[in-house]
Amino acid sequence: MTAEHIFFFIFGGVSLIGAISVISFRHPIYSALALIVTFFAQAGLFVLLGAHFVAAVQVIVYAGAIMVLFLFVIMLLNLGTLSLKGALSGKLKGVAILLGILLAIEGIYIAVTTLNNPNTAVASSEVAADTSYSIEEIGELLFKDYLLPFEVTSLILLAALIGVIVLVKRGNQQEN
Amino acid sequence: MLLSLVIFLPLLGVIAIALLRGMGASTVKGIALIISLLTFLISIGLYYGFDADIEGFQTTDLLRQKLNWVTDLGISYHVGIDGISLWLILLTTFLTPICVIAAWNSIEKGLSGFMMSLLALETGMLGVFCSLDLFLFFVFWESMLIPMYFLIGIWGGERRIYATIKFVLYTMAGSALMLVGILALYFQNDNSFDFVALTQSGPFEHSHLLFLAFFIAFAIKVPLFPFHTWLPDAHVEAPTVGSVILAGVLLKMGTYGIVRFCLPLFPEAAANATSWIIPLAVIGIIYGALVAMVQPDLKKLVAYSSVSHLGFVVLGLFSQSHAGIQGSVLQMINHGLSTGALFLLVGMIYERRHSRMIVDFGGLAKRMPVFATFFLIVTLSSIGLPGLNGFVGEFMILLGSFVKGAFSKWYVVFATTGVILAAVYMLWMFQRVMFGKLDSTNESLRDLNPREIVLLLPILVLIVWIGVYPSSFLNPMKMSVNEVVRKVDTTQNTPAVGQLKFNENSIESGQIIESENIFMTNEEAQIK
Amino acid sequence: MLSIEYYLILSALLFTIGVIGVLIRRNAIIIFMCIELMLNAANLAFVAISRSLGQVEGQLFVFFVMAVAAAEVAIGLAIIVSVFKHRETINVDEINSLKG
Amino acid sequence: MNLLIDIVIPIVKILIIAHMLIIGVMVMIWSERRVSGWIQDRLGPNRVGPQGLLQPIADGIKFLFKEDLIPNHVDKPLYVLAPAMLLVPAMITVAVVPFGSSIQLFGETIILQIADINIGVLYILAITSLGVYGVVIGAWASNNKYSLLGGLRSSAQMISYELTLGLSIIGVLMLSESLSLRQIAITQGEGVWNCFIHLPAFLAFTTAMYAETNRLPFDLAEAEQELVAGYHTEYSSMKFAMFFMAEYMNMIVGSAVTVTLFLGGWHFFGLENMGGPLWSGLISFAIFFVKTAIFLFVFIWVRWTLPRFRYDQLMNFGWKFLLPVALTSIVVTGTLWIIADGSLLWIGIGNVIAAFIVISIVAGIFMVDNSKKTTVDNTVEVSLPGLDAIE
Amino acid sequence: MPTINWSLLMPELVIVSTLFIVLIFDMIDSLSKKVLGWITIVGAAIALWVSINMLLVGEVGTEFSGMFEIDGYSLFFNIIFLISTILVTLISLSYLGTDHKKQGPYYILILLATLGMMLMAAGNELIIVFLGLELMSLSLYVLAGYFRESPASSEAGMKYLLLGAFASAFFLYGIALIYGAVGTTSIPDIATKLNENSLSPLLLSGMFLLIVGFGFKVAIVPFHQWAPDVYEGAPTTIAAFISAGPKAAGFAAFMRIFLDALPDLEPQWNGIIILLAMITMTGGNIIAIAQTNIKRMLAYSSIAHAGYILIGLAAASNDGKASAMFYLLIYCVMNIAAFGAVILAKNADGESLLISDYAGLGFRKPLLGLFLTLMLLSLAGFPPTAGFVGKFYIFKSAVQAGYVWLVIIGAINTAISAFYYLRVVVKMYMNEPEEELEFNPYPSTLVLGLVVASIGVLLIGILPALLVSPIQNAVM
Q1: Which end of chain A is more exposed for a tag (fewer CB within 10 A), N or C?
Q2: Residue A47: which domain range?
Q3: pTM confidence score
């Protein structure tokens, strides 16, 4: 039991509990908070994996921006607590959970077989021991090899910006 | 060149009508008539350019054209005719002007659309008969559906939508299979859709399945029992002109397809299939006749008689004999003429009385003597009275299949009862409509007007001509039929190039011609 | 380093929970959160795999995915707000005027 | 020895810093009241202890012994959780702030910083962005119209200004070529303070920092006149005290970060290098302390000088002025870095000129826009259909 | 500094420039907003011209460290997307009206979506495909909910968004798994690293998730549920757009990934694709029969068409690819035109969306009747329209690959589809209208769009060689 194990189980456990809470809390606010917890735990996992940059971005973007938006909208719409009956779709529930369990079993099976399968890249690669990448390296790659995706991302954000303005900006019609 | 002109001239008419339809109904009618007559006249030119001694397709530039179309996919624009298609083309170009005249006053709504559909349909039909490229054939085969769909669907009777949808779905379901067949042939033909090349290759892999794919498509069109259920609906609901074209030409596409594709391309499969096709054909003959007998509706009666008549054609086609096939081709024309005329006559009376029920009539002969005369002649032709066209075709079919058919002679015997039944239902119908007490509501019916007489006269002339002197029709198709027979005759498995075979053929055709002569003399004797 | 399968299993479980959530929850916002959860599961897989391969690319993917997720959330919430204005509900079962 | 370096020293550092923070908060509470008294030409608290120095302790005792009310209509778990959610981020931010160079003790070099992580700036941004949750959750859990409005305002405001906060330090990062706060401070010590190179960015950052800490003139989340007390209307006793402490802690940490990023950190023109290995560390710490204190004084000064913004003004200001300025700073710094071959002078001048141009253009467009409008939109941009349902 | 061969990126650059020109012009209040639409059209037309030129010249190459591949394939898809964009913009000009203030963002989003599609077609790296997909989808979510004052439009936007984002997550997870299995996300590298022995559950499930993701995006049964709702609720022009360009883009990426990156897995995916093709065609066509709303009918028809195109993918050959490309192009044109005709059928009360509203339309509005009939016939696959040639080509490639049964099912489906397409024609020409309706005059731009589309459909129907040869060159 190394420290990594311990931390993995702590963070992993928290993220799992958080995730389950997201789908089981009745009130959206609680779900949102549970999701924030999950994201935090994931940031911890990223740190364990040596991805400090990603961990920080995870907190800034997900916890700091995305979830605030969620909270903002939930509060804005002031969604009252929905009864569990209305919150869950009756006809789908059983099927969904069954499907989910199957999916989970499959996922675990895949993950477990991964290492035993020498054809899989992750299994056959020589695991680089403790490489943690500095932001300089990430930045260089980002602006050289991955310039195109980076630019596309900016366009995606432009699309989002314009879209949101169109969708919620008030009153162009009323003014006319 | 000439052939393409014939095919696309009606399409030119469509465009002309589309552009000039603002100028009034008479202009539209005029254009349609002129174009269709012109097409007919030019198509007569095909007859004069036709060389009856050539085996296979005509080779002169006038009657054969090949252009690259989609080179990458092995598709070409290739049209040509032989003795079989020649007559079907002429039949088409002959019937179209008649249809134009028949529709002269009966179409009130959307006249220009009607004429456009009619002319477009003509192009489609001519294209089907001329195509020597499978893709082209399929294009025409499918595109013909749309105008026909409009003809029935827009200008038809009460249940026209049901009928037209049924018609289209049946046909498309069939053509779906044919499409697969065509594609499969394409890959066995050096990635080419060319039909002439196809006739020289083969035998093909999976020929039984391919045969089936083609045959079902054509059987639906014929329609062979049990694929016939669309036919009565379509006929009953179609306007007069639609019925004429449907009976006169469209049904022939099925039989044409069989004789053009199924038989020569897959002779062995065809021979094997004979065992179940012949029973179906015979069932069709008898079933059609029996059902026709109990129909209270004139149009339905004629429609079911078509099922019966086309059963004969199929019987003849699969008899593998020269006489049978030749008879079948001739019978296609006969059926086109006489059933077309019957539908025209039924349409005429419907226009006057707005009923097609036999019980509504009776004693019409007194009020409408000219009509009754025409009706009688056409009825007799349909029954197959010696001296009229029906007899020649049916006799040759029965003779050919009895003498040479590779199936039990009992089938032929049963089929012959169809002729008798035809006489029963047709004459009974004639009697009920024309004789007996004249209903008071029918007192005011007018006799035929000059336009209608002009309309029927050419058909009558042909009916008698074929009946009296069929050789003028049989001779041009002789070599083409020979070729089909040579391919079909499974007793000779080797390709037909050798001297010996030629001899056999000549002997065989000699026999046939002989029998023809016998039969002609008989007929002449009878007439005398 | 911890064996990669731990991370993959965790990621698969998170993804599954997200899928179940999308299917069983009827509140549009919660559904949307579940979708975010699924994206995050993918992110975890990316980072774990890139770590195990000794590559840095996986981290970049995560970076892009996050940007995309942010854009998606912004638009998604805007649309949800505009639906709410019309219907006074965001229960996807009640939002059913489009049916043939 | 390892034990000492790895565990004991960090723990000691954490304890010292945490206590300094708490003491700092007390001092801030006292000085805020004294300074405001001074600014308004009155006395301020002066009864408890000399010069009222013990006033914060008295306040604390009062908070502790006050009855801990939890109103019936609130959402209990979140209501209880919210103050902590605000306080914790405020406290942990300080972990990456370098408050001095380093001292030699027991033969070990001890850096005056809890953790020098290589993504320090990102860490700060990350944690700062979490501060909003305490406000929002507290506001929502209170189940009170005023609180909710306060929370909504707060969340929108914080998200808006966070952008400026983040973008305005990109120029700094570009020149320091590092995300470590310590490295940034050292770079400034070797060269020029960043506030001179990135003057517009510095001003934008400071302004955004004010907004992030919900201080006047940006305290719309708790604007008494409009919202009673905004998000903490329903809070009292120790929970209220935690909100209160968090606000001051945010101020202190914010000032410390600003000092590190823009005002040279613990550097003061070579003064920090005087003395031996031990003394230079302590001097640097003192320099840092003084700088932070001065900055904090400005915080208080601004509060009692400027009036509060209206909400739409706040938003317009953030999006239409600060954000362009921050963006311009990035573009200009980057461009001049290449064109002027890294000349800091040119970058500094260019930044100011560019910011000036941008502001003029924006102001021009903005004024034209405003003159056309007949009515002024002074509510939240989106309407609140669900608001009626609160009662 | 990496050097970039800008000439390779010309079409994309033109679109980006147009985008920014529209963005700037939108800020000028005094400007008639119709100009923005025309700018969009001109920009797209220039990009189209550039793409065609590049295709004819045969300019190929990769850019951005191999992530962006310009080849005949991507250029041809560019042509499809740009034609869709131009047609949709043409029919939008009048649809949006003159007083609508939201025109600028509309065109910008259309251009952004187009750009996303182009990235999907040219992306040589899974992550680029994903980003292109998201750029396209995000723009489309907004466009679907664009008329926010209409509840239907908002709802359509929300449904599209939720299911679209759900699908994106599957897609992304699929990429992650493939990345784990192969160790790279570059399409050519995947192909080289894969061989028959590299099967692993990780890879297979990644592939499967990709199929699910694409299935949602291109609306394949059983992932199609969003399509009818979105088509019905979204603005009609946008429904046309969604049914055309994005579907083509989805297939572009689908085919590139499965045929270029995972050809070694063909035995594994082929069966799934064939099955999907069958149920998609059949399901789409059969449900379409029951529809009373023409937009929903067109939605199901577009689902069915996705099934036909899958046949081309299942054929897994150059010919199959070429036939799918051919089909996609003509499908886009005819589908947009069909939606355009639906817009044209707008009467004084608003849009006629029920099929029964079309009664008697053919005689009273002959031009409209002609357009709609032509497009429906083409969709049904009757000669001499382009739809016929397209289906023929696809079936041919499938027969070549030995999938005769698939073709038979496809051909029977064609017959089924004729039923509901013709039903509209039936209504238009064979029924009398229940009530007299007032009609607006034809907007000239809309008619222009329809005329262009009709000429295209007929021309390609009669002279398919015009298109077949370039496509065959493009996929070689």
Answers
A1: N
A2: 1-85
A3: 0.87
